[in-house]
Structures are given as structure tokens and as C-alpha cells.
Amino acid sequence: MSLNRRGNKPYRKEKQAGIESFFFSGGSLKKRSEPLKEVPLPISNANTKDIFKTLSGTSSQSFEDNGDCDLQEISMPKNFRVQSVPRPAAFSKKVSTSSISRQQLKRPFDSIGSYSSTQQKDEEEPEIVIVSKLKPSLVLTNHGTFSQHLGSKPASPAAEKSPQPSFDFEGLMSSVKPRAPKKLAIKYKPMTKSSSSMFQWSAEQQAVIDCVLDQDLNVFYTGSAGTGKSALTRELIRQLRQKHGESAVAVTASTGLAAVNIGGTTLHKFAGIGIGVGDAKHLVGKVLSNNQTKQVWNQTKVLIIDEISMVDVTYFEKLDAVAQGVRKIRKPFGGIQIVLTGDFYQLPPVSQNTQKKFCFQSTVWSQLVQKTVLLTEVFRQQGDQRLIHMLNAVRVGQLTPEIIQDFKSLCRPVVYEDGIMPTELYPLRHEVQRANENRLRQLEGFPRTYTAKDMLKQSQNPGDLVQLDKTVMAVKELVLKKGAQVLMLKNMDESVANGSIGKVMFFLPTGIWDAIRETLSEREMEDQDILNGVDCISAIFDNAPEDVLDSMWNSLKESVRERLLFHWSFSQNVPKNTPVYPVVRFSLGSHTSRSAFRAITPDTFVLESPGKTLAEREQLPLLLSWALSIHKSQGQTLPRVKVDLGRIFEDGQAYVALSRAVSADTLEVRNFDPSKVRVSRLVAEFYQRMGKA
Ligand SMILES: Nc1ncnc2c1ncn2[C@@H]1O[C@H](COP(=O)(O)OP(=O)(O)OP(=O)(O)O)[C@@H](O)[C@H]1O
User: Fold this and answer.
1) 449 annotated among ligand-binding-site residues
2) Nearest CA residue ID for atom 8, ligand 1
3) For the chain, what is the domain count?
4) Domain interval for residue 308
């Protein structure tokens, strides 16, 4: 092989199997006007599949170049560096220039560029260029061999400049081990909503913070739906942990869903007494016989209980007895500072006890609670005073003819221009399931089933898997189709968070999706022609017949074909068994037509008890969201909601359902009937006493 003027090896001229097909399967590319210099590159037999493996993230090891190639910088927008290896004249360039997010920066590869020829001569072999995001000096090409330092930390800038020993590309590829989907998933960062900078706390909220943090009181704070109880709880957790340390603050809620909402565990798991079967003496013995639970009770300085309205009075009294018995301190809850929150006008405990049911009926309550704070400022429906007024009337069961009329006037279809339908709320689980299945069935297209992976972690008890299934929101089997409406269950970034709703647009391997996103701006993604183009690419993964694919492709606008040619061609060579994930278009609110596209990969849902993870579920953090049960909706804010009150059976249920809405414009109410608005007399009296206190 001849050496070029620098004494390095020149480009390899022979064709490599499988490479050209992904450049020349359709459309045409423009010629590059200026001549390009020839530069040296090592040689490899890498084929498309190998490159795809790397691109799709089956490896996240860092790669480094061998310092042997001459890189020409093409463009450098903020946070983004596109470098490419020049090719001989008559080759054109397609390199993405879109800016990238911080999150994407974590991925191993930055951008894809390709050179391709309009004349398909052997020596004008097309080239793919993948630029490392972590290491801007790295360019991986189908012509190139690069060095790899498995598991090594990213090199310092100085190290990047210095030559590295060369490395065999095939060796590199063969050592890339497929990884579990979890590892491929974007790591969702916890939302910072609980951080003090997020909100200007109201005077009422601040009063709670002062009572808990400065005065160390046992506090119960309550208020109607949307008064910021959960937001405030998250802030208290943050500050209490700073004050006492993580392990001294027990964060619990009466239901699994409410616990997830504040990043805690269920009260049952914390307490270590199961559902509380047996008398107090027996339960104390049970805790004392388990070192871990005993330690948890002893190290807890503050116990937070959210959704206190659903804690049964008997259980509450047993908790107090256990705390005193285990800690051997004759004070309410053994001297632990208690922070209780919830709204008794919302869902009550599931209780057999007809005499006494709510924990405020207990003498323990009156001995324990030193300060009650009523939050009155409603944030959820801020800006819709009329709806706040109507909801307050439902909460206390005092409906006037005008209010009834106002609710009846909400019985009309609400049309959303972006096609995302409102979440439907039903009292009964089977109504929910039926509604979701019906909607899914109506969609054309190929159903894709995502089955959760459940694992016992620090537990030997198979019952914990049953508990996991009951507790976490992610379902065991998630069936999706293009067009399915979904609810996001995790906080992903500033735009897409737990509770965001969206629509499944495509199913794609994450690598292909990342490559597409780096080529297209947010605005371009809103363009229907572009969406048709991406849909065409995704049809490859639906195993659409070739003639169908070709006619779909040819029916696209030429500009779209040019824009997506690389991805289209590349996708055709992707192994058929490559996992695909839904790409969801999330609405950024009902008052804007803007949306955010995200590929959703599996995440982890855990069942915890104090200090340990009992079991884990790996599943896509999505739920079909045309319909939800009212019980599941408690604690959620739903930007668009349709409520069917036909089969309401519980006190507070109508109120919980209606109060998920953020405005009357986005609330549709079916079967409103004043008799469905049920309020517990005991609760009404409790709040009356509170008002007089
Ligand atoms: N001080 C504040 N300023 C602005 N927005 C706030 C404030 N406190 C809470 N919010 C917002 O108000 C909405 C409702 O808050 P949150 O869900 O905490 O209410 P809640 O009282 O727990 O409701 P529910 O009883 O229905 O569970 C959320 O979107 C929350 O982010």
C-alpha cells in the first residue's frame, strides 16, 4: 500500500460488503462544490451492522481515536462539534448541525455525517462518519480503525491530542457486549420541583415549614385538592433531610402511588407490621424480632405520612402502640416528630370498621397533633376562579342550582387540535380497562407488547413480587400501537415529567431515533411532511413489505427524502431483532400546540422497605392514558380530563375526579348528578371544628 504525503496509509479503495446499499437505495445527493483533501485513515472491514451496534448504544464505552487521522472541523454550534473526514471531490456531505441537549451529551455518539457519491464508482465509495460526543476528537467511519479503551475514563484534552496505540476495529466490535435495556435507558433525573427555588411558597405553606422545621411540632396540614400539599411535602423532606440526615426522616404514604409521588415508601412497608393483623403486643414483638425494622423505628426522628385520609383508624392506633413499644418511650408515636398531610374530603380508608373509620376520630390523634394548618390557596386551577368555586362546593357537598347547572354545561365534547385526547376517569377498574382496550383496538397498526422484567432484590419472599405488581404504576404487560395515548410515569426532563401525556408516533431503535433527532430541529419535527418521513423509516421496523416501503418513500417530498436519506438507508441494514422503543410526542400544555418528542426506554420501578429494595420492575414508564381509575388519579394533575360519574360509589370520589382538572375548558363531565356527590358527615364535622378552632 502506498503512503501519502504524511507517510500514512491512504483510504482503502475497495468496496466493503453491505456499505453502499444504505446510501444508494433512493433519492439523490447534491455534489459538494469545493474539492476535499485526501487524508489518511486506517482500514477496517467494519460493516453497517457493526457500526449500527455502536451507534444504537449497545456499547457505552468510550472510544478514542488513534491520533492517526487528520480531522477537518466542519461546524461547531453550541455544545456540539461535528468533525468529519474529508473525502475526494464529487462527494457530498450530510452532517447534522442541530444543537444537542445535556442529556444527549451522555450518549456515546454525537452526530452522523455521511459522504456519498452521485456516481456509483468503486473508488467513490460512500462513507459514514460518526462523531463521538464524549470525545470530540473521535471519528468512527466505515473506513476507519480506532483505538478503544474499555471502561477507561474519558481522556484529558491533553491525552486526546497525543497519539494512542492503534486498535483493530473488528476486535473492538466483537468485544461490544449487548447490554440490558435498563442500561440503555436515559437516566431520568429526579425533578427539582421540591427544590426551594421552584416555588415562591405561600404564607400558609411557609407557616407549615416553620412549624415543622423551626418548632419541631407534630403538624397536620390539609386543604383542598391542588393547594400544594404534595409540593410542600417534597420541600419538607428536602429540608428535614438536610437537618437530620437521610435515614432519620421516614417518608411514607398510605398508598403506593402517593408514596411514589413524594419519593417515599408505603406506610405498611415502613412499619414492618404488614396490614397490622393481631394486637399491639403481638405487633411490637414482630418488629423487635426483626433487627432491621427495629433499627428503622429507633433511628427515625421524623415520620411523614401523606394521604393520611386513607389510613384506617385502627391501623393508626396500632402504629402509635408499636412506636411506643419498640422505642420504649411513653409519648405519642414514641416521641417521633410526626408530619401528617392529606385531605379527608378526598378518598377515605378502605375499612371494615363502621363505627370509627378516620384516624382523626382516635384519641391518639388529639394527643399527637400539636398544630393544624389549613391551606386555602389553590394552585392547580389558578386562573379559573369559577372552577375553584365549583370544586369547593363539590368538596363540601353544598351544591347550588347554579353550580349544578355549571357542571352540567361541561357535558360537551372538548376538541383538541393536536389530537391528544383527554384522560378519561372512571370509578371502576374494569371500566378503565375496557375503555383503554377499546381505544387501542380502534387503532390500525401493529401492536407491540412490552413485558416487564420483575426481579426480587433484597428479598426472598415471592409475595413481594405480587406486592410490586399491585404497587407500581407500570403495568406487567404494556401493549402499544402507533397513535396510542400514553401517560408518562417518570420525570424525564424539564418538558416531560410524571403526568405528561402524549401520543405514540413511531417505534424505532434508539440509535436511529437519536440520529434523526440530531438532524432535525424541534421546529422541523412539528412538520407533517417530516413526520411522514420518519414514519416511513419506522415502517421498516414494522416489517412492511419492500414494495410498500418503496412506495411510501417515493411518495415523500423530495426535500424530506434528501433530509432523511441517510437514516432511511441506514435503517434498512439494521438487524431485524434490534429492539424498538416508542417515540412519544408529548403535549407541552393545552394552551400551546408545541410538543416534545422523546424515545421512551425501560426504567426501574421499585418496591422498597426501609433501607432496602425488595423487588424491582423494569418496564417502559408509560401507561395507556385514554382512561384511568379515579383511585389511581388521586394526587395527579391532569391537563385534559373527561370524568364519567355514572358509577361513583365512594365518599369524595366525585371530588377527587373533578379536581384533577386544571381548568373548565379542559374538563368534560358526563353523568353529573348531585346525588353522586357524596360527602362524609364525619369529615364535614371535623373540618367545621377545625374552622372554629
Ligand atoms: N407555592 C406554589 N406556587 C406555585 N405552584 C404551586 C405551589 N405549590 C404547589 N404548586 C403547584 O400546584 C399544583 C398542585 O400541587 P399539589 O399536587 O402539591 O397539590 P395537592 O394539594 O397535593 O393536591 P391533591 O390534594 O390533589 O393531591 C402542582 O402543579 C404544584 O406544582
Assistant:
1) no
2) 228
3) 1
4) 203-375
